[in-house]
Every structure is written in structure tokens, then in C-alpha cells.
Amino acid sequence: MLLSDPSPKVQKGSIKVLTLNIWGLPDIITTFVYKRYKKLDRLWPTKSLRMKAISERLGAYDVVFFQEMWVQKDREYMRTFCKELGFEYHHTFSSGVVGSSGLMVISKYPIHEVFFYRYSVNGRFPRIDHGDFHAGKGFGVVKINFEGHLVTAICTHTIARYSSEDHYKADRISQMWELVRMIKMMKRNPDELFIVTGDLNCTPDSLEYGMLTKVGNLRDSYLEINGEKGYTSVGDERLDYVLYGKSDYWKVTSSAIVLTGAGNLEFRIPLSKYRRKVSI
Question: What is the DSSP string of 147-165?
Fold first, then answer.
């Protein structure tokens, strides 16, 4: 994003952010899941190698928002490695019985406020194999001081669809309504950059997406720049977004779907759960 210059007092600057569903389940779980659904020919469950390949590609960004960063060891590795790339600040949003909502942010600029809200409707307790209820999913808010300008970002990972029938659509609509209510209640400065990002598990033609763009008055950075819906999932759908609030001080200059290649061609290691993630 490029900060415009409406007055001589405002200096130009740019901030580059990335959202990434890191697919951080332990290998033993992913092996079971993909054997069950016969998808091992598509993804190779080698998380440690993927984490290394991902971390080596983050240096160009200023702020990175992770989803499904479940394991403490992975969080520690990412924080330690990325600190060498200039990411001095980080925060993990704790929730659920596993101790983490899966949401984590790393930043090259100071994080001076954080807040987490756990969704009130979040799947079914007996469905341990789905995990959303036990993870305590919600949305995390961070306020970042970017060269003297306030950046407020909300990162979330809404409940998964799990099947074409999408039995959890009502849950996701409830989650979106809670998120939209928070967006509308938050007071923002005129020169503040406001971002909502993450794996929303909905497509650009869905009701959930419309709630964010129409009721929440957010703009889709990728659609605005590229003029197409794009896709970040294997099923040729876009589930990942960097949305932003309209501002006279900020404008989007580029938005791309990145990390499209394999981290290790020999072992066919994709770099994320959905192969492609959204950058802005």
C-alpha cells in the first residue's frame, strides 16, 4: 500500500502485508486426514520443511498474518528465524483447549495494542475431528505504529466448510456478523490504515463476503487492483483476503496472490494449505 500525500505534513510511505494459512497441524494428523480423504497425492505432510521454506520467503514483507499456527515449536521457530529478517515484534492470540487460536502476527514495526474476541458460535463440541470449537476461533486485533502512522489490523480464520454441503454456513454467518459489528464500532482516525485479513473460508460471491464489503464497508484489495476474483484454494476459489477501509490517506498500489510454487520440488511440498495466499 502507498500512503498518499494530501498535505505537506504527511510523508509518503508504503507497507507490505501478507496473509498466510500456514497449515500448521502436526504431521500425524495431516497424514490421517489425507489418507482418509485419499488426497496424499496432492499434499505432502512435511510441516518442518514447509515452515523453513516459508520463513525464507518473508523478508520482503513488513507485517505477516498467520492462520493455523497451532504448535508452540513452530511459533518459536518462526519468531526466532524471522527476527533475523527484521521482524522484531510478534503476538500470538491464545484461545481454546490447545492454547492457541492459530492466529499469529509478526511485524517489523512496533505492536502497541492487541485484543482477541472469541466467536460465540464455533462448530460443535463432539466434532473433535473438525476442531474449530476446541481451537476457540475468533479474531485478533493489533495496532501497529508504522512510521508515526496508526495501522489497525484484524486477523481472523472463520469456521471451515469441510464439505460441499457446508453444514457450518450458519456458524460462519454468525461469526461474520460479530466481526462486522466490531468493525462498525471501532472509531478510526482519518489517516489510519484499517485492514481485515485472513482465511475467511468464503468466496467473493458469498453472503459472508457481502457482509464485510457492504455492511462493513470494506474494499477487496485484490479485486480492486486485478479486476478478477482470483483463487487461493485448490478448488479454484479464493478464500483468503486483504480487505481495507476507505481512506483519503491510503491507497492500494498492488495486490497479488503469492507463494504459488512448491518449497521443495523433490518432495512436492506446498507452502500453504491452499497453495496460494494473498499479498498486498
Answer: TTEEEEEEEEEPPP--STT
The string of pLDDT tens digits covering residues 257-272 is 887 654 443 444 445 5
Helix (H, G, I), strand (E, B) or coil at 143: strand
**CA-derived radius of gyration, the chain:** 18
Regarding beta strands 2-3 and 17-21, do their DSSP bridges make them parallel or antiparallel, or are they unpaired? unpaired
**Secondary-structure breakdown of the chain: helix, strand, coil percentages, each rounded to the nearest 5:** 25, 25, 50
pTM: 0.86
DSSP lists the bridge partners of residue 156 as 139, 198
pLDDT digits (tens, 9 = 90+) for 75-124: 999 999 999 999 999 999 988 667 678 999 999 999 999 999 999 987 56
3-state DSSP assignment of residue 225: helix
Exposed/middle/buried for 92, CB within 10 Å: 0-12, 13-18, 19+?
buried
Write down all domains in the chain, each with its CATH number in brackets. Answer: 2-279 (3.60.10.10)
List of the chain residues with pLDDT < 70: 1-12, 27-45, 96-97, 99, 123-134, 163, 233-235, 260-280
Three-state DSSP state, 120: coil
Residues 6 or more apart in contact with residue 114 via CB below 8 angstroms = 91, 93, 140, 141, 142, 143
> In this structure, are residues 142 and 103 in contact, taking their beta carbons and an 8 Å threshold?
no
